[in-house]
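Title: Comparing notes on inverse folding

I've been comparing how different people in this forum approach sequence design from structure. To keep things fair, I'm posting one structure and asking everyone to reply with a full sequence. Here's the target:
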């Protein structure tokens, strides 16, 4: 095969504008001599309308559009595989230009549509029940690659304002209720530990939350962490989204084994950081995730200790049936045991209207599409519905 001719533009000649925040976009426009209001117009087209072709930005002059085309591009990750589950959940395996891949999952429900987004390729942490934990960290995602997951999902679902869907809306069928947005919530619960890629996650989430852009409010964005204590306060101050903590155990000894990061930041330090998370009220609570592992952390004594531990923290508890993967050393708790655990937690006041949680299908996103894909059995889905603990 012949090498590219000398006149072909080099591959990285154009800079991707997706992922630039307001200040960076303004600076970029200043660099090409455009007036400041042009950056605001561009912001609208990129993040509110989801346009991927500068030619479609009809409020911009032809000359300016041509200048943009010469310097920039608006890239999305490439979908290398799509998996659709019977309940409407959709998983995309996304590929970036360097060949690395992550997963993004859309979970449609009656009242909401949740997008589960990845923050890293792999993870440095090695939680013993998590499949991603068996994959080494390959790299952090950039802000563009994180926001790009949300934008790609909007493309595929036809969920942009003004009905513009650059690639059509091939997967809108089976979406929730008419009239509502298909993506109403974003959870950083895909691959990776978001607080170990702090700046990129922050910059991306501020773009996602911008109400003149993608416009998903901070109350509808949840960042899940295994407990990177120093960055919890930073997340509160610099991002201000909802927080979820992967607790999974009530004693340090066990948590050290399940979530080895606990050796560095033990339960007490973690809960102190939670108590200090800004803006907590009964209406704005921290979600504590608790994976149900048979014979490991699912006794009634654990449930009691959990309630005691969380006393004084505005909290929700999300019980998650363990999602097994090939080679995993745990089993999911028996349904009866989950029920008992759940009833205790419920009687202690950790409940609100029962709804379908974004539990299992989100978790299935956690590194598993890259290997085996398991579907939820009807029984598991029912268990999830019955156990829903969040409002
Ligand atoms: N690294 C972050 C976010 C990604 S994991 C964190 O750990 O919080 C998102 C959630 O899925 C976490 O609560 C994690 O503990 C949970 N999880 C991972 N693997 C799981 C599995 N096989 N079954 C059930 N939950 C799992
Ligand atoms: Fe990483 Fe979260 Fe999986 Fe732990 S649970 S290995 S922190 S992705």
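Reply #1:
Here's my take.
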């Amino acid at each position: 095969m012949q090498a590219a001719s000398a006149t072909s533009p080099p591959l990285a000649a154009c800079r991707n504008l997706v992922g630039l925040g307001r200040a960076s976009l303004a600076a970029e426009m200043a660099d090409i001599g455009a007036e400041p209001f042009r950056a605001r117009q561009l912001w609208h087209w990129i993040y509110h309308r989801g346009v991927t072709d500068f030619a479609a930005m009809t409020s911009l002059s032809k000359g300016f559009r041509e200048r943009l085309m010469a310097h920039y591009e608006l890239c999305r990750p490439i979908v290398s595989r799509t998996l659709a589950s019977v309940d409407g959940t959709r998983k995309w395996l996304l590929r970036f230009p360097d060949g690395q891949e992550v997963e993004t999952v859309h979970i449609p429900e009656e009242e909401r549509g949740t997008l589960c987004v990845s923050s890293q390729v792999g993870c440095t942490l090695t939680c013993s029940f998590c499949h991603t934990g068996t994959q080494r960290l390959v790299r952090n995602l950039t802000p563009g690659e994180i926001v790009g997951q949300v934008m790609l999902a909007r493309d595929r679902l036809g969920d942009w304002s003004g009905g513009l869907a650059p690639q059509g809306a091939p997967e809108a069928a089976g979406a929730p209720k008419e009239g509502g947005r298909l993506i109403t919530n974003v959870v950083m619960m895909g691959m990776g530990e978001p607080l170990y890629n702090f700046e990129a996650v922050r910059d991306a989430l501020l773009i996602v939350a911008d109400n003149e852009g993608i416009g998903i409010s901070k109350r509808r964005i949840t960042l899940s962490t295994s407990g990177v204590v120093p960055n919890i306060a930073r997340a509160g101050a610099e991002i201000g989204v909802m927080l979820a903590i992967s607790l999974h155990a009530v004693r340090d000894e066990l948590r050290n084994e399940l979530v080895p990061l606990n050796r560095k930041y033990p339960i007490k330090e973690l809960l102190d950081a939670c108590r200090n998370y800004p803006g907590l009220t009964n209406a704005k609570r921290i979600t504590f995730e608790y994976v149900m592992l048979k014979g490991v952390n699912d006794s009634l004594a654990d449930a009691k200790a959990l309630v005691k531990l969380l006393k004084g923290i505005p909290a929700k508890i999300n019980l998650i049936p363990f999602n097994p993967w090939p080679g995993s050393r745990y089993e999911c708790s028996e349904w009866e045991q989950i029920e008992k655990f759940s009833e205790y937690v419920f009687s202690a006041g950790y409940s609100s209207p029962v709804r379908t949680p974004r539990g299992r299908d989100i978790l299935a996103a956690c590194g598993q599409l890259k290997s085996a894909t398991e579907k939820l059995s009807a029984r598991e889905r029912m268990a999830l519905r019955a156990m829903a603990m969040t409002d």
